Amino acid sequence: MDRVRQSVDRRTSIHLLTGFLGSGKTSLLQHYLRTPSGADTAVLINEFGEIGLDHRLVAAGTAGVQLVEGGCLCCAVSGVLGESLRLLLAERKRTDRPFSDLVIETAGLAYPEPILNTIRSDYALNEYLRIGTVVTVVDAVTAEQSFARHPEAVRQATVADRIVVTKADLVPPNQVTRVIQHVRSLNPFADIVVAGTLEFRRSALFDAASERRETCSSEEVPTHRSTYRTFALAIEQPLDWARFSLWLAALLNRHGRSLLRFKAILELRGTSRPVVIHGVQHLMFPPRHLDRLPDGQRGSNLVFIVDAMDPERILRSLHRFMEQQTGPLAA
What we know:
Mean pLDDT: 79
Low-confidence stretches: 1-6, 49-63, 215-219
CATH class of the largest domain: Alpha Beta
Oligomer: single chain
CATH superfamily of the largest domain: P-loop containing nucleotide triphosphate hydrolases
Strand order of the largest sheet: 3-2-4-1-5-6-7
Shape: globular
Distance between the termini: 87 Å
CATH topology of the largest domain: Rossmann fold
């Protein structure tokens, strides 16, 4: 009797974690890496800004975190993706710190399809890696505006295997229902869970390789609008928190619609504990204290992503604030 050999795919699953600016990707990733499933997961983080911050905040598993800088993986630095993955694979072979899974956290403005196509079309990488789950994070607070104004948010939801709706506790239940219905209309095949619910806690965030997703040509993916701008600022001296928070509140109130994303790690006067802050459009989230500055670096790092707004306006305003820190706050 002939023996039937069953082929076992032993390649490492590479998962994609995507979602529009400020949707909560990094928080979700931090949560996952603290679970048993994420303990031996390697992480590749891509940020749109000039200075990467998220990789300094992620508590990675045994394989560590790698940052891809200079733009989003779907366009400006797509050629770097294959090189970064090869470096991770080489590091795994050279050391005794293996990883069983790999997660790519994309920039908030990334189109997922070119990233998936890059992985699929690289035959050398296909020997070791296979596409796993595409998880898209959708922010219940700003999802409706994001879907209406930004095609990137729509494409991120459309290509997902699983969609996690975040910040449902910050909006009325009927708004969460509307967001879920909208997401379902964009992608009727995806699993949809609301973060923080019992269903979410019981579900696996990433699964094994998915064969459902089809590749799409780069011609099908639109380019980013030319009005997107990103800029960053490093400040050496500690900041006065009370005065800085007033400046930031005024900025969000006046330019919130154009300020797609703001995030910062701040060194403050009078305390050794730095503060992490971030905001999305008009919404500012509660500050989070760290025990120490990541990587032992000093000073504050701020990153802005804006739409149809001159970065010089923000920079001039912040410079006036910096000059006036010891005197009356400039209007």
